[in-house]
Amino acid sequence: MTSWLRTYGSVPLCLLLFCLVVAVCTQHSSASDSVCWSPSITSCKECLRRGPQCAWCFKEDFLDGAVASQRCDLPVKLLRRGCEPEFMEQSEVKVEVNATTSSTQVSPQDISVTLRPGSQASVVVAVKQLKRYPVDLYYLVDVSASMQENLDHLKTVGVALSLRMTEHSSDLQLGFGSFVDKPVSPYINVHPSKISNPCSDYEIRCRPAHGFHHVLGMTGNISEFTRVIKRQRISGNMDTPEGGLDALLQAAVCQRDLGWRPEAKRLLLLMTDQPSHLALDSRVAGIVTPNDGLCHLENNVYTGSTRQDHPSVGQLSDKLLENHMYLIFAVEKQQYKWYEALVHLLPGSYLGKLGLFQAPNLIELVVDAYKKLLSEVSVSVSVEDKAVSRYWVSVSPLCPNGSTAKDQSCSGVQPDQTVYFNITIGMHSCPDNGEDEDVKVVVRPVGYNESTVVRIHSKCACSCGSTRRCNDESQSPCRETQGSTNQEQRPQNGLIQNSDRDSNWNCRADGSDMDCSGRGVCDCGRCLCDETRLGTVYGKYCERDDFSCPYEGGLICGGRGVCVSGECVCEDGWTGDSCGCPVSTATCQSANGLICSGQGSCVCGKCVCDDPRQTGDFCERCPACQSTCQSYWKCVDCHLSHGLTQKEAGHCNSTCESLVGYRDDVLGQAGEKWIQCMYISNDSCRYRFQTSSQSGQTQLHISTRAECASNSRLVGTFLCVCALTVLCGMVVVAVSRLLLQKRNLTPGGAAEVTVYHCTGKDLSYIPTSNEKTVTYRRESPPDRPVEMHIQDSKMPRGDPWQY
């Protein structure tokens, strides 16, 4: 670090940071421009895998001689290079809704979507809550020995629950089943005497242990439900956990055996005082076969209990969703924590904590769970297992109150309200074989007997129009010919070389002695042009490129077009050799809405004035035009001679080229666009007029008010000025005189006169023919000024000079 500072310490830090920012921005810009293009792309499939924004041009003569990778780019760039939209193979996303199927709760029920790798599509699924549903409630009860007292409380539940549920359901049916655990060691005692009666040690007659026993199918006969409950006996097992999950899966998938109604809300209530076994627990009993998730009931008894493992939590969750089940756990408070963790993994499940399994508590639990489960609406989205790794799904619900829930569900939904789910499905990649495939995605609202099926058709192959030829390297006719004839022509190497030499002439332009203009190689009679960092070289003979165009601002074609054959093909809205001129004239439009104020034309986004004297961005100013007043004098004089009336104005059409109007006062319209002028007529009257050329045509406004003056008024004005001038002069002289006299006075009030005598002077300098008085004054000292008066009178020449 120290050496770095020593080396670059003299470089300003801001300059280094600026260079770093420029480098990063340049790299980002280049990356965004080449998101589709890559030199490694050789086929249409590879191109479309770059992203949904990429396209492949399969036009046969597109960029003759260019490498295959140049056919892959953004559609807008391919279009500028001469590839029409009908020759582009690009990602397409289609969403079609089958409106023929109708439903009351979930809509739509059938949607078709077409995707390509990297693309995504969104569909909206509406789930509506109805007012009253028929309800099927199945009691799945743990009948191990510890549940004896709890089983007795169920005998009075049926009638009371039926009466309570009439407030929420139009039709209630009840069913009943029991479970203990897998009837194998070490879960039960396998001694022959214990198998038939696990409670023989206590001299109690118990029923044998079982994985699941379906006792009573769905029925509205509450008396029958009560009678069946009274006949139930307990059983027994060895370990603490029970086989609850095993029994739950069978109760969910054996719909026909249990009598689940398709139109009803299905509630599955599990009652137990112990935790449940999970998947892989059966290995201690030697059971290693995974649970297949199918129904295995024979004579209402689960026959797969001793052959299959317990289901996993994920498997149970899927089966509950597929069969539209709401799951309610009624457990004692000692096991609440264990089942609390399980509920979070099972959509549409509810956990109730009971101190005692008494009838009132069970009834409240069922009613509260039913209202809570129905008021919470959520969906589960499943993708076929074969394609689950190639797709992604996101769910965004819109609740009736207008909020967007973060946990993919809406709570507090009331009857007749609708929840909308925005389902976005995206495609990562194609199958390994690269072929098209059809995948089914199922959107299941939890607890509803209706669902939405999204049928996805993935497009991985390229159709490339009616010819089915993509013109990529995988379909090169030369490669196919060489591949099929290599074995046949191997002995004739000399002939092959001669044939190749002859085919090279197809790679030379007329008059050229170089293959492919020296910018490519000849392969099978066709030029494969070189790749360069400057741009793309293409053409039949590699004679064209996309970098020999004018630059502007350091960018080829100003960054507003592409270079094709040495000429810029500009983007929409731009023109010019380097795409530097906007097509729009908006930049030349002045405030009055005219182009260049009507005084010029818009050239390359800037105003060019018709009159060289006009200036400004919009030719709105003309300082030199102020001297043009004299050019309108003839026109004004013509209108004055005809009395400034509209009837006679037509006589001056030949004299005036401008549009003339009359105004009482032209000063009221003064402004930057009006030039104020004046004309003096023969009768010495002045007429004001103004001219303007802002609207594209010269306008002339003449004031009808003449400013005239009479001769007598002029003479009077002259005499007054003269009299005032004389009066002012006299006043100035008098004031000056008074000031001089005041300064000549001494402090005592009298003037002091001093006489000087002069002798020995040259008499030739003494004047003899006149008389003069000369006064000299000394200002200092200021408090005593001194004046000297010399009086020169006429005297004979021979007389002496005296003061």
UniProtKB/TrEMBL annotation:
> How is the protein disposed in the membrane?
Single-pass type I membrane protein
Keywords recorded for this protein, A-Z: Calcium, Cell adhesion, Cell membrane, Disulfide bond, EGF-like domain, Glycoprotein, Integrin, Magnesium, Membrane, Metal-binding, Repeat, Signal, Transmembrane, Transmembrane helix
The SS bond pairs are C36-C462, C44-C54, C47-C83, C57-C72, C199-C206, C254-C295, C399-C410, C430-C677, C460-C464, C522-C527, C524-C557, C529-C542, C563-C568, C570-C579, C581-C588, C602-C607, C604-C652, C609-C619, C622-C625, C629-C638, C635-C708, C656-C685
Give GO BP annotations, semicolon-separated.
cell adhesion; integrin-mediated signaling pathway
Residue ranges annotated for the Integrin beta subunit tail domain, each copy included: 629-711
Q: Which segments cross the bilayer?
A: 714-735
From the UniProt entry, list the residue stretches annotated as the region Disordered: 466-499, 775-803
Q: Which family does it belong to?
A: Belongs to the integrin beta chain family.
Q: What is this protein called?
A: Integrin beta
